Amino acid sequence: MGKASTMNIPEHPLREVLDQEAHARPPTPVTAPARVTHIATVTGEQAALADHAHLTRLCSHFQAAPPPADATHASLDLGPFRLKWERHTEFSTYTFICDGASTAPFKEPAISAVPADWLAGLPGEVIAAFHLEVESESAPERDPDSLAGLFDNNAIAGGMVLDGNARIWTDFRFHADRFGRTLVRAGALSEHSLGRLIQRIAELETYRAMAMLAFPLARDARPRVAGAEEELSQIIATLATVEGTDAERDTLAELSRLAALAETVAADTTFRFSASRAYHAIVQDRIRGLREERISSIQPFGSFISRRLAPAMETCENLARRQESLSRRISRASNLLRTRVDVALEAQNRDLLASMDRRAQLQLRLQETVEGLSVVAISYYLLSLVSYLAKGAMAAGLAVPDPFLVVTYAFIPVIGLVWLGVRRVRRAITREGGLKE
C-alpha cells in the first residue's frame, strides 16, 4: 500500500479558521531607533464597517491597497510610515511606526506623517494614546535629570524587561498634546523581539484603559445598590409582623419594585464588568510576559499598573458580588412572602369551600323537605280526583262502593306512585347536573 501524498481524512470545517486565528495579529518587526504612536478608539460592537471605510480612505491617500472588507487586522506599509490596524470586539487600535530617531525624543512623533484631517475623523472616541520612542543600544546613556526632562519632570516608572535585554520608562500621564509618553532602550533585542515588546506595551496601555471603564460605572451604581440593600433589610425585618393578605401583597409589591431596580442596575453593569474582568486578565498576562526586573530608585512598570488597577477591579468585583447577593436575597424574601400569601389564600379557599358545602347540605335538606310536601300535595289532589270520580259514578247509577271507601283503598297506591314519580324526576335532574345524591 503506497503512502498518501495528501490528507484524505474529512477535516473539521473550522480547522482553517482556527489555524489562521492562531497566527492572527502578529507583532510588526521594529528596528531601533524608531518612533511609534499608538491610538485606541472605542467604537462599539457595530462599527467594523466604519473602521474599515476610514482605513480605506487612508490607503487611498497613499495609493496603497486596503485590507479585505472582512479583515480584523492588517499591517500596511504606506511609505512615510507603517501602520498596524486591529479591530477588536468594541474598540480598534492604530499603531503608526516610523523608522529612525527624531531630533529630540517625542518632538517628531510617528503621526506627524499622518494626514491631520484623517486623524481628526477617526471613528469612535480615544481611550488610549501614547508616543513611544525606541533608542538603540548605542545611544548615549541618559542621566536621571535628562530622563526626567523627557517626561516634564513627572514621577517615572520603569524597569528592565525581557531578562534585562531592554529598559522602559514612562510617567503614565497625559502631556500637552493629550498623548502619553514611553521611552524604550532596545538593548540587544532582535527586530522581532522588539516588535513583540512594543506590542505588549501597547496592549498594556489599551487593555488597562478598557478595564478601567468599569470603575466609574461601579462608583455610580454603588449608591443605588446600597439603597436597595437598606430597603430590603427593612422589609425583611418587618416580614414577621406583616399580617393580613392586603399587607402581604403590598410588601410583595415593594419586593417586586426592588427586584426590578436590581435587574436594571445589573443590566447597566453586567456587560462592562464581564469585559473588564477579561481585560484585567489580559493585562496581568502581559505584565508577566515583560519579565520585568527592578531599576534602582524607580517604581517598576508592572507594579505601577497593578497597584492602580487592582483596587479598581476589586471595587467592580465587590459591587458585582453585592448585586448577585441582592438579587438572591430579594428572590428568597419574595418566595417566602409568596408562600405566606399562598397559604393564606388556601386557608380562605378552604373556608369558602366548607361554607359552600354547608350551604349545599342545607339546600339538600330543604329539597328533601320540598319533595315530601310535593308528594303530599300531589297525592291530595289525585285522591280528590278519585273521590270526585267515585261520587260521579255513584250519581250516574253505577255500582261502585262508597266514595270514602274508594279513596281509602286508593290512598296507599297513590301515595306510592307519586313518591316514586317524584324520586325518578329528582334522579334525572341530578344525573343531568353531574351531581351525586
Describe the structure.
There is one protein chain. This protein has three domains: 26-210; 214-350; 364-433, no CATH class. Helices cover 58% and strands 13% of the residues. It contains nine helices and eight strands. The chain has helices at residues 15-22, 48-61, 116-120, 144-150, 191-212, 214-238, 245-290, 301-395, 403-433; strands at residues 34-42, 73-77, 82-87, 91-99, 125-135, 157-161, 166-170, 180-185. It has an eight-stranded mixed β-sheet with strand order 2-3-4-1-5-8-7-6, with helices on both faces. α7 packs antiparallel against α8 (301-395) and α8 runs antiparallel to α9.
Provide a quick synopsis of the model:
This protein is an alpha+beta fold and 437 residues long.
The low-pLDDT segments are none
How big is the Rg?
A: 46 Å
> Can you give the helix content as a percent range?
55-70%
How does the overall form come out from the CA principal axes? Answer: elongated
How many structural units, i.e. domains? 3
Major β-sheet annotation: 8 strands, mixed
The helix/strand order is: HEHEEEHEHEEEHHHHH
Order of strands across the biggest sheet?
Answer: 2-3-4-1-5-8-7-6
Return the structural class: alpha+beta
Compute the separation of the termini in Å: 91 Å
Tally of extended strands?
8
